[in-house]
Amino acid sequence: MTVDASGLESERHLLERSGTAERVAAILRQYITDGVFAPGERLSEPVISSALGVSRNTLRESFQLLAHERLAVHELNRGVFVRELTAEDIEDLYVVRRATECGALRRAAELSTVDLSLVEQALRDGRTAAGAEDWPAVGTASIHFHQALADLAGSERISATMRQVLAETRLFFVLNENTREFYEPFLTCHEKILHDLRRGRFDAAEAALDRYLRDAEARLLDLSTPST
Amino acid sequence: MTVDASGLESERHLLERSGTAERVAAILRQYITDGVFAPGERLSEPVISSALGVSRNTLRESFQLLAHERLAVHELNRGVFVRELTAEDIEDLYVVRRATECGALRRAAELSTVDLSLVEQALRDGRTAAGAEDWPAVGTASIHFHQALADLAGSERISATMRQVLAETRLFFVLNENTREFYEPFLTCHEKILHDLRRGRFDAAEAALDRYLRDAEARLLDLSTPST
DNA sequence: GCATATTTGTCCGTATGTATA
DNA sequence: CTATACATACGGACAAATATG
Question: Is B17 on the interface with A (CB under 8 A)?
């Protein structure tokens, strides 16, 4: 049995030897995206530093990392708070995603070799999760799908900004129920995009992706303002 | 006499009440982009903290900011060093710029109101600097021009990533002489782009921008590897 | 509006581990 | 291999700002 090592180097950013501050940041990041720390909640230096057994100095470095990733906001002399996304943030987030993801596909079209294995893997994961009716897992697979799309550009910086933007997007997903009617349409769009990519139809894939992102934005905004 | 306040809010990110760490980071940022700290040079905690009169704790927070902006690299237990750009970095940088700047123009085309005043201002500055044969100033004006282009999208996050990418680009400009033959072609391209934008020809402007960025990349790479 | 308690911002001293001459 | 310099991380201190009653 052989191991598929293709695309593994895209995970290299996870391997870097990390200091305490980054490990602490990883824990807090998980707590935030899991909703343990609610949006708007203050992250207290004394309670968290004693709870995790790290000094305040180190914890403050972790806070700065989170603030730079926009998962938290720092207010001078008031502390750091879990980010609260507004409707404008959603719109902005999707403007960036359209520019970044579509730009990545355009760049991929220029490259001689494009490895779709990670994109296919994410789609497979999404399908099996949907079969098990595990909608949070479908959401996670969707995140991976879009990250894999951005990674097609082969650009370290595009991948990095995509990671950041998707972390913010996940921040919003926490708030809303993970329902079938919300996630199910995503899968069919993903399949259409991958279908086009397999045939080298990058322009069709880009158009489908653009439509998909506009639709997702509209439905997210609809969820956040339940006017009916 | 009235003051033109249009677009001033795009400078708001400079006004935020900042702690010592961010002020220190601003100083170091200037030193790096001015070439006072050479690429690859180590930024020593003891000497800089004593020189600036801040504690090492605070200085470490500043270092983290610079590392996040990719102006410095942090190696565990070894310290932080001024970033050294490779040829691959240049290519990556311009891949990102094509995606971001062209994406910004596409977004601007969708908006009802587009304020070109900052773009025009940057072009005027570039022209007067070129008239005075002040080529470093021409380079600065060029940076402002491209930032203004990205700002047309009206997206806080696109503007932020553009600031970051341009800071990195400037990091490379430091190394090379600022000569007439390098900067002069930039101005004519800028004029073409602005000309198209004024007439609402966003697609033509985007095409010109894309060509311009590919050309600039090629000439930068040519400068960095003087094979002749 | 005021006094108090809490929290952050910043500094210092120090012990430990790591890299390098 | 040893020695030295440095980064890492900790704990304590105090002033300043903020929140609370």
Answer: yes
Nearest nucleotide to the CA of B59, by C1', is: C10
Q: Does A42 touch chain B (CB under 8 A)?
A: no
Interface of B with A in 169-228 (CB under 8 A): none
What are the per-10-residue average pLDDT scores of chain B (228 residues)? 48 60 91 89 93 91 92 95 93 97 97 95 95 90 96 96 93 74 86 96 97 92 68
User: What is this structure's pTM?
Assistant: 0.90
Q: Is A121 left (phi over 0), alpha (psi -120 to 50) or beta?
A: alpha
Interface probe with B: pick from A65, A157, A159, A206, most Cβ of B within 10 Å = A157
